[in-house]
Design a protein that fits this description.
It is a single chain. By secondary structure, the chain is α+β, with helices and mostly antiparallel strands. It contains 9 helices and 9 strands. Strands 1-6-5-4-3-9-2 form a 7-stranded antiparallel beta sheet, sandwiched between helices. A two-stranded antiparallel sheet has the order 7-8. The protein is globular. The relative contact order is 0.20. The N terminus is likely disordered.
Length: 236
Amino acid sequence: MRWMVAIVVAAMVAGAGQARAETLPLPAGVIGFDSPQGEALFMGAEARHDYFALSIFFTTQINPAYCGPASIAMVLNALDVPRPPSDLTLGLGLFDQHNIFTPATEAVKPAAAILRGGMTLDDLGGVLAARGLHVDVHHAADTDLDAFRRAAVAAINDDDHFILVNYLRKAIGQQEGGHISPLAAYDADSDRFLILDVSRYKYPPAWVAAASLFAAMNTPDSDNHDRTRGYLLVSR
């Protein structure tokens, strides 16, 4: 029997070595950036300026609760805020998901608390403001689709502003809870925004219809006193 068990274990180990890590399939109506349709949308996009600044620093969140810190690191780097040394770069300057935290940000929400429960829209705004940035927080219930679209397109086309969205994944057919990522482009013909999804192990960057994205932001967040999710604009 022992030799049979050994063979089974060996087969399992070999199979594990051949397993492939793949992202989850995108739901209907959400278009992968790396698909032919996604590439065509980008080539025809009316607003895509922020893509270039963000993509240079595009990063993957280091754990399931760190979509906020990953997005913050990307934006701080893209805004060309003076960068501290990073353990990831042998001491060269780069914001990462550890060195974004300071005593001022810890007073807003400690890194340990974010590790346990993630960030709300207001947490996100507070941490960015604690880094000395100008932040405008917009809860979806306090605005509308047209205002969001105008603000987002203007930010994407502006060198000095970036937009981060906080939305409920399951509202656009993804798995499953609240999430934070930057927007990088907008295509007017299809009325879609490109989300640079920082959970790249889970979903690729994707184009989402503006109305669907706004509806996903216009959802109550139980971790934020049931205030709706939304978006924020950030600049130096």
